[in-house]
Each structure stands twice: as structure tokens, then as C-alpha cells.
Amino acid sequence: MLATRGYAAKGPASPLEPYDFGRREPGPRDILVDIMYCGVCHSDIHQVRSEWGASIYPMVPGHEIIGNVTEAGDKVKKFKVGSTVGIGVFVDSCRECGPCRAEEEEYCEKGVTLTYNCYERDGKTPTYGGYSTRITVDEAYAHQIPKGIPLERAAPLLCAGITTYSPLRHFGVKARDQIAVVGLGGLGHMAVKFAKAMGMKVTVVSHSPSKRDDALRLGAEDFIATSDQSVFKKNVMRFDFILDTVSAGHDLNAYLNLLRLDGTMVMVGLPEPMLLTASALVDKRRRLAGSSNGGTRETQEMLDFCAKHNIASDVEVIPIQRIEEAYDRTVRSDVRYRFVIDIASLNQR
Ligand code: NAP
Ligand code: ZN
Known about the structure:
By secondary structure, the protein is of the alpha/beta class. It is built from eleven helices and 17 strands. Helix 4 (160-170) packs across helix 5 (186-197) and helix 4 packs across helix 10. The protein is globular, with a radius of gyration of 20 Å. The model has no long low-confidence stretch (mean pLDDT 97).
């Protein structure tokens, strides 16, 4: 095993703390990656705090990983030593089912192997994420980072980026459609950038009135602050499409009423269960759907789209020692717009 330094949570109420563990030696199709940066996704917080049900501890979170290849197995084709790669939300899948063959592995029928808080295909080896100095991964589940994207700003693309790019592509949203992005956080700010680059007319719907200027700077044409509840009446039936990125419980019905006839609202946020009133859908033949992150093919497409359109995440780089503060600020919606850990700080204990 390869000695690896990381940060782990030992339980749902424990702070993250230094944790040493072993990574597997690279096999013929594996690459060994020295991690440079890892983004802090709200899903890390949900899972560390066991908000989605039983979590696996000790947990080394992190699924927005950027690093350099330091070893490559003899059957590795896509990368060589020195390549800069990205690793996202999953590191393996069954490779046989329909979604896997279509390179939509996140929807693997046998269950995808998540980058952390999961077990390898053997069902017993825990997976550990990117709050660590290195990772061994099958090359099929790593991505080429195009030149030109600053690496700390590329890390969040591996989750926040693909999770918002994918539904904008999949649900047939068109240029010039009126769309609303609900929640201006890590996912939301990427959604605004992508939608703008795709020619859509974007409105940010936020419970933080202070984010208006940022929303417009990021590419939105309008901003709605929900602190004034009358906005739900004023904007009824305004949008063709809504992307809901909110991490906490909220009134789904109020947001659905902002959709036009035949409009679609897609949930990417994963808060606690919420109440849905059927009439909010029935009245205007609306659709409510969900979307996970994105498969390997689409993730590479998204990275290339970012390079072409000069898109990257707005980040605040922190040393790992400030992770608890970063979690608290993220939960308070006080992140502009993604914390990214400088993994070199793991060597400064
Ligand atoms: P984030 O950076 O914390 O952003 C979430 C945003 O939600 C906040 O910035 C805030 O925006 C809004 N919000 C938070 N609390 C709220 C409240 N009480 N009422 C109304 N709005 C509130 O989180 P993130 O990393 O973007 O992740 C967002 C959600 O997506 C999380 O639940 C995460 O687990 C999930 N996620 C899902 C996938 C997937 O595969 N589908 C992938 C990644 C993440 P405003 O201040 O603008 O209101
Ligand atoms: Zn994530």
C-alpha cells in the first residue's frame, strides 16, 4: 500500500482531522495521481454529517480533484507521467449495463462506485476522496484537463461543473429560453456561466439579497431575492426551465409556480425531503425532474466547453487546516463561490 496523508471525519459530529491511510499500488490500467487541489462540495458536508443516511467512517471526503500523474500502469493509454488530470464523483462502475456502455456511468444499474463514502467493486474496501495527498484510479474514470484553465479554478468543474452542465444539455433547454437558477452557490454560479455561454436568458433566484451584483457579473440578466415573498406572485409563469441547486429544504410548490405551461424544473440540489403539491404540476402541465452529475463522456465534453468559452469556477483557495470554517461558511451560504483546498497544506502539520 502507498502511504497517503489525508483529513477524515471519524463520525457525524466529529471535526475533520489528520488521517493517514494506504492507497493501492497502481495496476496495469491505473494511474497514481499527486493531488494539487480539491474543491469543497456541499455534498461533502451532507455526507460528513450523515445527512443522507448511514455514512462510512472514517470518511476522507472530496470529489473535485485535480492532480498530476506520477505513475501509469503499462496498459494506460490516455495519460502519461506528468499529465494533469481531474477526478470527479465516481471512480468505478459495473462497465456492462446500458448506462455504463453509454458512458453515463453515474446511472450504473448496479450502483456506481463513489469516490468516497462507498466501497470498491469488491464490496469491502472503502473509497477515500480528495482531501488527501494522492489517489490511485483506473484511467477510464479520470479526465484530461485542457490547457488554459487555472488548475485551482478547474477543480470544481469535476462536480459543480458537470452537475449543472449535464441537465442544461439533457433537458433540451434552448438558446434564448428564459431560465431560472435557484441558489447561487458552487453549483448555481457554474449554472449561470454555462447557461449564459449557451445563449439562455438567465435569472438568479436567491435567498441572499446581497448576491445581486455577483449574479449580474456572472452573466445573469435579472435577479430575484426571495426575502420578499411577493416575488413569487410577481414572477408566476415566467420561466421555461428552472434549475434548483438549493442545499436546504424550501417550498418546491412556490418555485414550480414560476414555470410556464409545459415548463420543466430540474432538481440537482439534495436537501432533506420536501412537500410537493400535485396541483403545482397539474395546473400548467409542468414537469419536475432530477439529474445526477454526468458520465465520463459528458464530463470531458464539459471540460472542453470550459476551455473553449473561458469558463472556470470562482474560488477561494484555503489550506486544509481551515476546512471547518469553510464548511460553516458554506452552510451559511457565505461562499463566493467555491472553497478549494490547496493540498500542499497537508504536508504542513
Ligand atoms: P452551496 O455552494 O452551499 O450552494 C447552495 C445554495 O443554496 C446556497 O448558496 C444558497 O444560495 C442556497 N441555499 C442554502 N440554504 C438555503 C435555504 N435555507 N433556503 C434557500 N436557499 C438556500 O452548495 P453546492 O455545493 O452548490 O450544492 C448544492 C446542492 O446540490 C447540495 O444539496 C449538494 O449536495 C447537491 N449536489 C448534487 C449533485 C448531483 O449529483 N445532483 C452534485 C453536487 C451537489 P442563495 O444564497 O443564492 O440563496
Ligand atoms: Zn459534489
